[in-house]
Amino acid sequence: MSKSGEVEVHVPDNMMQNWAKGSRIRQATIVIGDQHSAIFEPCVQTHLDHARTWGYPTHILKHDLSGKAGWVKLVLEKSLHVLSLLVSEMAKASHERADWIVWFDADTIILNNNIPWLMFLPRQDSFSDIHFVACRDWTYLNYGVFFVRVNEWSINFLTQVATFPQSRPDIKTSEDVDTDAMLWVLDQAENKDHVVYQPRSWYNGYDLGDRGKSEIHEGDMQVHLVGVDSERRKEAAVHWWLSQLEKSPPKMNVPLEASGYPEKVQEFWEVLGTAKELLQQSQQRSHKSRLDLYKVKDAEEELQNFIHFAAFDMEGIITAMVTLQQAHDDAELQIAQDHQSSMAAAIALNDAHLTS
Q1: Would you identify the family this protein belongs to, as annotated (predicted)?
Q2: What DSSP character marks residue 221?
């Protein structure tokens, strides 16, 4: 471990070996204050163990950048911490840079060391326009785990998020400023095509705390203690999950090939790719044939919304594709019928003219 200012950097011995295989990932989190450290450092340790397996350097911010303390003030520093890493990486030669930075909240626990972060990212030869990968829940966005590509778009994006309170004082936000700022920036037209939301159960399943429920199943990669609403309960939850890891490591550490992840992730990217291709073809067909039928436009908008905001709902996105194709079939049938009716009317008019 090395330390630069108030950031601890843990670099595993196998980093370069794994980077040579294409796993060029850095990960980051924040742990600030003695009270938080006592609860969350065991959680972060599971990430360090995972990082040693897969060769990920880990950057842990240990200092309150704003100097104001308090969780509400600290959440905005998540964007600042990741932004600083992005700037640092972009200052390097291209062959020395990470490709992605993974953020994880300190109240997440790695349960299955056999699942690499690389599993969830788009292949290098596809989806080069996707720069931000995250999950959504009933609050629209959970910012506890996300992936951001190392490039200029990401720097611009997180700069807007980190400076949002100052640059957009006209926009009202809740106490969760970071999430509100990110949602607003992501919703801008120039950013929508660069974001994808994956199934949250893959790596951001919740321990729902007070409700006595958990979304976690055997072999899942990670649990997020987002539903545990007090430090005492969170400490108890951390102890419980770590005890499960100690009691039965094989039960939790399901091999990658038996976890179901490879099949599910491959299907996700295939469905998303097909949806994007179909939408592009539809828009080209509409423009070429000058189709302006409301069913086609509505179906295109529905599919576009699934791609932008709900790609994790694969059943929904497949249904939207079928609806769009049917709308085109109906539109083209209507055009053919209208053309046939026009021809028949023209023939009848001509016949009437001749007989007169």
Answers
A1: Belongs to the glycosyltransferase 34 family.
A2: S
Judge whether 14 and 22 are in contact, CB under 8 Å.
no
User: By C-alpha distance, which of 202, 88, 37 is closest to 136?
Assistant: 202
Q: Do 181 and 58 sit in the same domain of this protein?
A: yes
Q: Examine the fold and report which residue of 254, 288, 305 is the final residue of a domain before the chain moves on.
A: 254
Q: Are residues 87 and 177 in the same domain?
A: yes
Give the burial class of 285: count Cβ atoms within 10 A of its Cβ; 0-12 exposed, 13-18 middle, 19 or more buried.
Answer: middle
232 lies in the same domain as 275: no
- CB of 87 closer than 8 Å to CB of 99: no
Can you give the length of the chain in residues?
A: 356
Provide the 3-class DSSP secondary structure of residue 331.
helix
pLDDT for res 160: 93
Rounded distance, CA 106 to CA 200, Å? 17
Instruction: Find the helix packing angle between 314-355 and 261-289, rounded to 10°.
Output: 20
Which residue is listed with tokens 């990430």?
47
Number of domains composing the chain: 2
Q: Are strands 7-10 and 2-4 parallel, antiparallel or unpaired?
A: antiparallel
Task: Give me the average pLDDT of each 10-residue run along the chain (356 residues).
Answer: 77 90 91 76 96 96 66 66 96 94 96 96 89 86 93 96 87 83 92 95 85 78 85 86 88 93 96 94 70 79 94 95 88 57 53 56
